Amino acid sequence: MSTTAIRLLExxxxxxxxxxxxxxxxxxxxxxxxxxxxxxxxxLVARVDLDDLGDEDGGPGxxxxxxxxxxxxxxxxxxxVVYSADGVGTAxxxxxxxxxxxxxxxxxAEAHLPERGAWVVxxxxxxxxxxADERCCPPGGRPLAELQSTAIGAHMVLAGVAIADSRDGVGxxxxxxxxxRRSASRAARRWAAxxxxxxxxxxxxxxxxxxxxxxxxxxxxxxxxWSRSRAGDVSRAVxxxxxxxxxxxxxxxxxxxxxxxPDTADLPERSLSDGADDEVGAALALLMDPQTGVPPRRDEVxxxxxxxxxxxxxxxxxxSAPALTLLALLAWWEGDGARAAILLGRAExxxxxxxxxxxxxxxxxxxxPPGWVRRGR
Length: 377
Description:
By secondary structure, this protein is an alpha/beta fold. It contains 18 helices and 8 strands.
């Protein structure tokens, strides 16, 4: 999601906006918000678990890392929002954890990054953190319905943007039915078996293809599935299975990614052979480089997302890492770091150490936005 200009003088708008920016309703979390420029426009939104930030041993280090992300975002100040079922006014270990989390963040930021507001949100209300004035912060907080009736909330609802109930719900892709998954698995095995290693040697059968032929046919299958999805057609289970097998090949996976980058012409096809590495590197830089970075074409990315989610829904877990990683990369390219992180976590569980996922995880971990976002700052 792109940066949205919100005035800090309107805390209700900020509090209404954060769940949409994260993609889910935070719980037991502290959210730090980068505020840029004299008008305090909202920049980076970073969420951490209260348990982690409030920990006596690891909390201070995590707080310093969090402030480092705010600095990298060129923040002039920051705001913080605590989401806790128990708030901060109750006794006990939960309240102490919240207090410690806030103290750790403030200690890490106090030397150079001023705080411009702090709030707490519970399941029943919201209030300014530490406010004792019952005229503006009544016991239990102000009603959450006030946040739902903001201009931000109305805009997001009209735009069709939804909030998942939990962080895990952001990356949830419902699996297809058992028979459809079995059909997809059979298609994946058949498609993988058509591939003849190398470019020479005897064919294993009339249906066998050389490596290059197989990769070209796999890319054609992707383009065909993408075109049919854009036209509103529903892909068959066998199509999803074929694509799952195709994406397990790194060159084919990267060609699929290249096909989504604007103005790459026939580079995806040429990348399937040796000799186009420099052009491929230049094209991939359009995702990362703040000098040349290009934004995604939303309708094209949305179509690709539908196809890739179909692959994940039909593929066996062990074969889902490539599609999940591409989905994470698309989310990151659109500026949705929260969804990207969750999808990368799913990819890691499917195939620990999957290289592209690990590389993208590094960018997400340091809060590095895509090139087109950094160029606009």
